[in-house]
Structures are given as C-alpha cells and as structure tokens.
Amino acid sequence: MKAAVILFPGSNREGDVASALKHVTGVTPSIVWHADTDLPAGTDLVVLPGGFSYGDYLRCGAIAARAAIMDAVRAHAARGGLVLGICNGFQILCESGLLPGVLVRNARLRFVCREALLKVERTDTPFTRRYAKGAIVRYPVAHGEGNYTADTETLKRLEGEGRVAFRYVMADGKRDDTQVLNGAANSIAGIVSEKLNVLGLMPHPENHVDPLLGPTDGRALFESIAGVLERA
Amino acid sequence: MKARVLVTLKSAVLDPQGKAIEGALRSLGVPGISSVRQGKVFDVEFDGSDPAKAEATLKDACEKLLANTVIETYRIEFVG
C-alpha cells in the first residue's frame, strides 16, 4: 500500500502517523509538501496529520485547506481514494469541504490533553473494520478546537446516514454528554464521508500503536486500512 | 481605496470566547452589558477605485477564505 502524508507548515504529527503506518504495514509513507500539485503515482491513502498548520491563523485548518496539494487530495477522494484526517487534519477536511461541519473552540475554552474513551460506531468503513462492533477504545486527544458543530439539518443527516464513526463515551459506554472534553455536538469525535472513504477524527489513533508506548487501541485502524488496500 | 470586512458568528452558534469576555467584564464591574460576541475585522486596501468591482472581489474573498459560512456571516464596509 502506498500512503502519502501531507506536510503543511506547522504540522507536527506527520512523524507519529508515518511511524504508525510503518509499524503496521512495514512500508514507510512518503511525505508530500503542501505546495506540490500532485500526489505520488499510485497513492492509495492520503493522511492529513495533526499539528497547527499556519499557526491556526484565521481559523484552524482554514489556510491549509486552500493549499495547492488540496486539489489533488480532493480529486483522490472523488476517485474513491482513502483520506484520513487526524486532529488538525480533521479541521482541514472540514474547511476544505471534504467533510461537513466545522470544529470550533472547546466549550470550556481549555486545551485538552488526555486520553479519551471512544465508541466505534461503525465497523463497516475502510478505517474501522478490524474493530469489534460497538468496541470502546482509548485514543489520546490533544486539542483546543475540537468542538464539532454543524447546523441542525447536517447533524440530522449525519446521524440518519450513520456517518458518525467515533463518539466520546463514558466508562459505561454511554454517550458522554457532560461537555467536559470539548462540547462537540452529539459527542461526535469523528465522521466519515458519504462514500465512507474519507475519515476525520480529533483523537490520535497513531499514538496508540506501539506496545512500547502503552495501549495499542489505534492499531486496528491502520490494520483496517492496510487490509482493505491489500484486497483491492 | 479601503474596505473593512467584519466577520461574526451566526447568532445560533455558541461563542465560548464571547461568554468568557462577558464574564470578565462583569467581574470588572463594567455595568449594563448583557451580552458579548467576539468577531474578526479585516482592513483591506485596494489598488483600483471601482467600488462595485472591489465589493465583488471582497465577496469572493469572504466566500473563499475570510469567513466559514457554516458558522459565520460577513459584512463589507467601505471606509473611504
């Protein structure tokens, strides 16, 4: 499988996600500069990594979403290619129109840096098929703007179409409606596109892959992607 | 020619920053303030002098970058 990680000025998780991909698939992804206009030939997966592209100026992800490479990413997604946006990558996907809604300042105005419990709401996407249905997983979160919001109609559509891939939950598995983490609408942590080939999420699966560093709950996400691409 | 673009959150969107500022003003004892909403101001200078053209350009700029119309609205003013 060929993966390309897009590097924007201010990205800082490109190494983490590249190392997770290498760990799971054995293949080192290429790092692609934002000002390039083409993805490497035969790219199967595009990753928009976490960080603070352009210093979060204007709005998080807003300037990166208009970078030259994003036309190629949009074309890749339109062809059905896989796109994974993590944290700032999720913000970029929303700003670029590849996913609906927007991520705004956390409801309590605090940067949250801790582990979050998530429910895997769908296991039939290319990103989640190696998880058990309804699995509760632990991924770290580290963000100041992870408060997902969209207009009522969009939220209704997302829920109706089952496009919420990950949701923040409490220890008992019930939806976390305390708003303590970031205040996201319907406790949404991650959503997929209509064709399920684009996933954006705030938490960081790439940091829970290597047993050397503790939990490995994120591993199945990368195994899912690798499995799908091997079969293709 | 100079223009000012004001980008503000739509009224239905919660503004935690505005709420925090509102609380700080209250704790400072500034009287009579019932609500604060935070927004952004962009001061833009133009080469030409055709206001219609400038307005069309700015509208385009707002739609493309300056405002996220999912949560924000914008207003364009000419300041001479």
UniProtKB/TrEMBL annotation, chain A:
Biochemical pathway: Purine metabolism; IMP biosynthesis via de novo pathway; 5-amino-1-(5-phospho-D-ribosyl)imidazole from N(2)-formyl-N(1)-(5-phospho-D-ribosyl)glycinamide: step 1/2
Compartment(s) where it occurs, according to its Swiss-Prot or TrEMBL record: Cytoplasm
Reaction catalysed by this enzyme: N(2)-formyl-N(1)-(5-phospho-beta-D-ribosyl)glycinamide + L-glutamine + ATP + H2O = 2-formamido-N(1)-(5-O-phospho-beta-D-ribosyl)acetamidine + L-glutamate + ADP + phosphate + H(+); L-glutamine + H2O = L-glutamate + NH4(+)
GO molecular function, one term: phosphoribosylformylglycinamidine synthase activity
Keywords: ATP-binding, Cytoplasm, Glutamine amidotransferase, Hydrolase, Ligase, Nucleotide-binding, Purine biosynthesis
InterPro entries, A to Z: Class_I_gatase-like, PRibForGlyAmidine_synth_PurQ
Coiled coil: none
Superkingdom classification of source: Bacteria
Assembly: Part of the FGAM synthase complex composed of 1 PurL, 1 PurQ and 2 PurS subunits.
PANTHER family (alphabetical): PHOSPHORIBOSYLFORMYLGLYCINAMIDINE SYNTHASE SUBUNIT PURQ
Protein name: Phosphoribosylformylglycinamidine synthase subunit PurQ
Organism this protein belongs to: Ancylobacter amanitiformis
Gene name in the database record: purQ
TrEMBL record, chain B:
Record keywords: ATP-binding, Cytoplasm, Ligase, Nucleotide-binding, Purine biosynthesis
Gene3D superfamilies: Phosphoribosylformylglycinamidine synthase subunit PurS
Statement: the UniProt record of this protein carries the keyword ATP-binding: yes
Main localization of the protein described in the UniProt heading: cytoplasm
Pathway: Purine metabolism; IMP biosynthesis via de novo pathway; 5-amino-1-(5-phospho-D-ribosyl)imidazole from N(2)-formyl-N(1)-(5-phospho-D-ribosyl)glycinamide: step 1/2
Major enzyme class: ligase
Subcellular location: Cytoplasm
Coiled-coil spans in chain: none
GO molecular function, one term: ATP binding
A Pfam family matched in the record: PurS
Catalytic activity: N(2)-formyl-N(1)-(5-phospho-beta-D-ribosyl)glycinamide + L-glutamine + ATP + H2O = 2-formamido-N(1)-(5-O-phospho-beta-D-ribosyl)acetamidine + L-glutamate + ADP + phosphate + H(+)
A GO-annotated cellular component: cytoplasm
Keyword check for Hydrolase: no
Superkingdom, natural source: Bacteria
Entry's EC annotation: 6.3.5.3
InterPro entries named among the record's database cross-references: PurS (IPR003850), PurS-like_sf (IPR036604)
Biological processes annotated in GO: 'de novo' IMP biosynthetic process
Family of this protein: Belongs to the PurS family.
Physiological role: Part of the phosphoribosylformylglycinamidine synthase complex involved in the purines biosynthetic pathway. Catalyzes the ATP-dependent conversion of formylglycinamide ribonucleotide (FGAR) and glutamine to yield formylglycinamidine ribonucleotide (FGAM) and glutamate. The FGAM synthase complex is composed of three subunits. PurQ produces an ammonia molecule by converting glutamine to glutamate. PurL transfers the ammonia molecule to FGAR to form FGAM in an ATP-dependent manner.
This protein's name: Phosphoribosylformylglycinamidine synthase subunit PurS
Natural source organism: Ancylobacter tetraedralis
Top-level taxonomy: Bacteria, Pseudomonadati, Pseudomonadota, Alphaproteobacteria, Hyphomicrobiales
